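in:
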């Protein structure tokens, strides 16, 4: 698990990092934490690797609410928890889909409770991808990916939020990773999200309104995966 601590108060940041270390020791969870003392240093080149962000609301360069709005443009799925001295500021968290907020000083018991909620939610979450966008990367849950298309050395992720092209792993490697997450390969060029398959007509599968070719060699295996996904 990766955690980001965006906090300009050095003592408060160290305390949060220590709470995370204690939680990792008690639960056996592997947690890597990174600390940023300004919002802009955190957002610049955002890598979309974080599972949870602890965001101080009162930051020197950009307040936490505005920083969170920018964060949501890059990462719609990361868990966000505000940290503040004044609860009245945290009510704006609903605008940016914040999980919760802490009042300073943060006690270990409070952090442990929120981390348990995050662990439970993560165990239910689908596989996710970090896809490149201008200025950084955007993480998508697999349930937002309609299908993946291979062309040469490039992969295009056709998502409900748009198309994203990157150089990535081979289709064979990607297929192995995704078979357990409701995806199946219908031919050499396509791996489709079975939840978006609307109909099959001969060797064509309707995937969210687009017709993709099913190869003869893969049809039996693909149909087995498709029918199995409805059980």
């Amino acid at each position: 698990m990766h955690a980001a601590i965006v906090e300009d108060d050095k003592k408060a940041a160290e305390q949060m990092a220590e709470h995370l270390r204690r939680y990792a020791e008690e639960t056996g969870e592997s947690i890597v934490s990174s600390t940023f003392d300004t919002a802009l240093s955190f957002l610049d080149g955002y890598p979309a690797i974080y599972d949870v962000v602890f965001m101080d609301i009162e930051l020197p360069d950009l307040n936490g609410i505005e920083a969170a709005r920018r964060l949501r443009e890059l990462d719609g799925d990361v868990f966000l928890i505000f940290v503040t001295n004044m609860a009245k500021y945290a009510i704006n968290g609903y605008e940016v889909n914040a999980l919760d907020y802490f009042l300073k000083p943060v006690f270990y018991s409070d952090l442990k409770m929120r981390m348990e909620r995050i662990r439970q939610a993560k165990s239910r979450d689908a596989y996710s991808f970090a896809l490149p966008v201008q200025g950084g990367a955007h993480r998508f849950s697999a349930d937002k990916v309609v299908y993946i298309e291979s062309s040469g050395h490039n992969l295009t992720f056709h998502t409900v939020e748009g198309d994203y092209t990157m150089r990535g792993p081979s289709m064979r490697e990607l297929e192995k990773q995704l078979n357990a997450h409701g995806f199946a390969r219908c031919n050499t060029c396509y791996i489709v999200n079975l939840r978006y398959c609307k109909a099959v007509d001969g060797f064509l599968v309707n995937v969210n309104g687009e017709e993709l070719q099913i190869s003869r060699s893969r049809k039996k295996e693909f149909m087995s995966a498709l029918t199995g996904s409805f059980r």
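note: The radius of gyration is 21 Å.
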